[in-house]
Design goal:
By secondary structure, the chain is an alpha/beta fold. It has two domains: 1-106 and 239-335, 3-Layer(aba) Sandwich (Isopropylmalate Dehydrogenase); 119-219, no CATH class. The protein is built from eleven helices and twelve strands. Helix 1 (14-27) crosses helix 9 (275-287), helix 7 (203-212) runs parallel beside helix 8 and helix 9 packs antiparallel against helix 10 (291-307). The longest helix is centred in the middle third of the chain and has 17 residues, at 144-160. The protein binds 1,4-dihydronicotinamide adenine dinucleotide.
């Protein structure tokens, strides 16, 4: 059986980390039929559309996407393709596990945190306008429906995966109506799960608490903007943005991508660490029911980090993106060739 997957390599470091990831995925022997598309500025130049309709049709068909990062111009230009895809397919839950890979020295070992970010509203609604010259308004949308849905997602995940505690992160002391509604929805859902401890922290305090002691948290649920910012902060616990995967999940489809962006500072130089997209692809493999392949890649990845010979520059190594991928594939081949353990 082969899996049809919509592939969006993206731009900047996207094509490099996507190529590395696809090579490793294919080396597992799992069969994929990739439907590959450009989006963003590259697509506009070629097809006159930022998100060609073929991409939408493909995701509607395959229901699974693997996506590299896509650049969004700052302070003008076109709106985020990433946000547009999440909204279009109602990928309401952005699931971001923050876990150390063994053998990577970091300030905090054994971090195991789950960030659940609401992915469809808040200040990402794109509702901005100039009221009068010199005054602009950005609208933050928070709805009962989306807040309840994301809280339920978080608590259901906790229940199924034996997580013990969820904190809702907010700024309801200032945004009394919007974040107040988000909190009320979280409290209502929390009451349905008496076995899971529930807490609330204000977002600015959360940043300080995380840096002081990330172990005090287990799962964090929050609206879109806070989730975006806190994910990058937490990436620093586990080696940086080169390590953190994510899954954009909806009721009908899912798109897997790294937390990081297109990293224009290192793009096209074979310097990017593909681990974050590779770990996102492991979430995809599990979503597709390919648990063995996911374990094979994870074991090989851990060995590459243990041997430390083929690490990328962000983690103090000298290997390029493609050499790193070669090393992971080599470890997978070594594992296949190893004699079976005596029972
Ligand atoms: P960024 O995540 O692209 O880069 C931040 C820093 O982390 C840079 O120093 C970069 O070199 C480093 N970095 C990121 N990924 C890395 C990797 N795999 N290996 C080694 N180093 C890595 O964030 P930035 O610079 O704020 O954003 C650049 C562009 O990416 C912007 O246009 C932004 O809108 C877009 N973006 C796209 C996302 C997506 O497609 N989902 C997510 C975040 C940003």
């Amino acid at each position: 059986m082969s899996h049809r997957v919509t592939l969006i390599p993206g731009d900047g470091i996207g094509p490099e980390v996507t190529k590395a990831t696809v090579r490793i995925l294919e080396a597992t022997g799992v069969k994929f039929e990739w439907e590959s598309f450009q989006v963003g500025a590259d697509a506009f130049e070629r097809y006159g559309e930022y998100i060609p309709k073929e991409v939408i049709e493909s995701i509607e068909r395959t229901r699974v996407g693997l996506k590299g990062p896509v650049t969004t111009p700052v302070g003008g230009g076109f709106s985020s393709i990433n946000v547009a895809l999440r909204q279009k397919f109602e990928l309401y839950a952005n699931f971001r596990p923050i876990r150390n890979l063994p053998h990577i020295p970091t300030r905090y070992p054994d971090v195991d945190l789950i960030i659940v970010r609401e992915n469809t509203e808040s200040l990402y609604s794109g509702l901005e306008h100039e009221v009068v010259p010199g005054v602009v308004e950005s609208l933050k949308i928070i709805t009962e429906k989306a807040s309840t849905r994301i809280a339920k997602f978080a608590f259901e995940y906790a229940r199924k995966n034996q997580r013990k505690k969820i904190h809702a992160i907010h700024k309801a002391n200032i945004m009394k109506l919007s974040d107040g509604l988000f909190l009320r929805c979280c409290r209502n859902v929390a009451r349905e799960y008496p076995g899971i401890a529930y807490g609330e922290h204000i977002v600015d305090n959360t940043c300080m608490q995380l840096v002081m002691n990330p172990y005090q948290y287990d799962m964090l649920v929050m609206e879109n903007l806070y989730g975006d910012i806190i994910s990058d902060l937490c990436a620093a616990f586990v080696g940086g943005l080169g390590f953190v995967p994510s899954a954009n999940l909806g009721d009908h489809c899912a798109i897997f991508e790294a937390v990081h962006g297109s990293a224009p500072d290192i793009a096209g130089k074979n310097l990017a660490n593909p681990t974050a997209l590779l770990r996102s692809s492991l979430l995809m493999l599990r979503h597709l029911g390919e648990f063995d392949a996911s374990t094979v890649i994870r074991n090989a990845l851990e060995k590459v980090y243990r041997h430390r010979e083929k690490l990328t520059k962000d983690i103090g190594g000298r290997a390029g993106t493609s050499e790193f991928a070669d090393a992971v594939i080599e470890e997978m081949d070594n594992a296949k060739a190893a004699p079976a353990a005596v029972p």
